[in-house]
Amino acid sequence: MINVALPKGRLGEKVYAMFEKAGYECPAIKENTRKLIFENEEKGIRFFWVKPSDVSIYVERGAADIGVAGKDILLEYSPDVYELLDLNMGKCRMAVAGKNGFYDDGVKTLKVATKFVNIAKRFYASKCRDIDIIKLNGSIELAPILGLSDVIVDIVETGTTLKENNLSVVETIVPISARLISNKSSFKFKTEEIENIVKCMKAQVKTDD
Fold it and tell me: d(Cα 4, Cα 122) in Å, to the nearest integer?
């Protein structure tokens, strides 16, 4: 049995559709139910829904053999897992944003509000920039507006929220998309089954060219 951690929400539904197309369907998952675990014994697969930010924890600790997590989570928490495939969906970018017209003079310590502390620290360390990190959990856009921070480091999808709050992207740190990941031990013992899933998923990945 291959255990698959799916992220709750639209992305997880799209990913499940890929599994279904690959021949790993589990009809019960589409029923209107509060159940969290669904299995198809015949196909040897078991799916369960988890919070997107928790997928990598379930996979790293072996509760799931494989799962789908955003590259942002993998970069922020560096879980000890294999990254098997870029699904080229759930695309956005990690970016630095500030008030319209913001310019970093590079002199005073830069105040950075973010929930992605490690990504921000690594990014500014690579630029040898002295920063003061302010960890926030929500409504990051408020920080520069209220003068709590100079800039924010956050996920930007369309940029609409930034625009509506008179903020704009200063620079892009890294593009983000959903990745298929695997528990290292599971990959060792269930190599054939997992590689077959990767092959079937790969055939469905839409590329940009």
Answer: 31
Three-point CA angle 110, 170, 131, nearest 5°: 15
**SS3 of the chain: helix, strand, coil, percent, to 5:** 35, 30, 35
CA nearest 79: which of 87, 69, 91, 94? Answer: 69
- What is the distance between the alpha carbons of residues 70 and 56, in angstroms, rounded to a whole number? 9
CA 10 to chain centroid: 13
User: What's the CA gap between 53 and 101, in Å, rounded?
Assistant: 33
Q: Residue 83 has which token pair?
A: 């990254």
CB neighbours of residue 161 within 10 Å: 15
Residue 208: predicted pLDDT: 59
Give tens-digit pLDDT for 10-58: 999 999 999 999 999 998 888 888 888 999 999 999 999 999 999 999 9
Token pair for 64: 């799931």
CB atoms inside a 10 Å sphere around CB 109? 10
The CA-atom distances, in angstroms, between 30 and each of 58, 59, 103 are 22, 23, 50
